[in-house]
Amino acid sequence: MDKEEIMKRLGGNVTEEELMKLFSPKPKQKKRQTHKGERAEDYMGQREPDRTFTEDEIREFCTEARSDRRDMWTCIITMSGTGMRPFETLSLKPFMLGFPRAQFTEIRGKQGKKREIPFHDRLWAELHAYIKEEKLERDQILFDFNIRTLQRHVKKYADEVGIKWIATPYSCRDYFATRFSAMRGEGLRPVVILKAIMGHNLFPNERYVKITPEEKIEAVNAVFKDLIL
Question: How many of the other CB atoms lie within 10 Å of CB of 148?
Fold first, then answer.
């Protein structure tokens, strides 16, 4: 049906602009990539953080979480202390801790890429205490809730401590990167360590920098040794 016929059927009560909208092709919506165990609708309404936690905000936020739910608090300090994405954190099981080496875990991130995540000393001890308290079997999920539940609780804790900007589970990952960069500087090796931990692509010149597991542990311990959440 052409424009003239449409105008004729509508009695001429349609503007050229309205016709253009009718005939213009609708832009294709980019489908969000999801990962195993996720659903696209789990991310509805979730936005990247407008900013990151200050040191005072993260303490108050985590204190609120700790007073509410042990599992939620442990999940939050795991994201904040490792930089793992929410879906990566929610996939953790006890047997994954300490593999392939002590104080590390190996996870699959975006596009199924494997990477090793170091745990600083206090977080490592806290995770094992949590597993013992909850009496989790080696193949049980550490945090038995989904991304939507995590989102709701992050928003609730942020609201209760008076955080005015939009806090999401990704705010914890953003906090890790911000604190790591501030504490370790902007030199080549710290940047490569941070990218390796967070699963970011390396620039060509960064691929020649070889980082040992010991360096990763030393780095996260230095960054988080004085942080009490």
Answer: 15
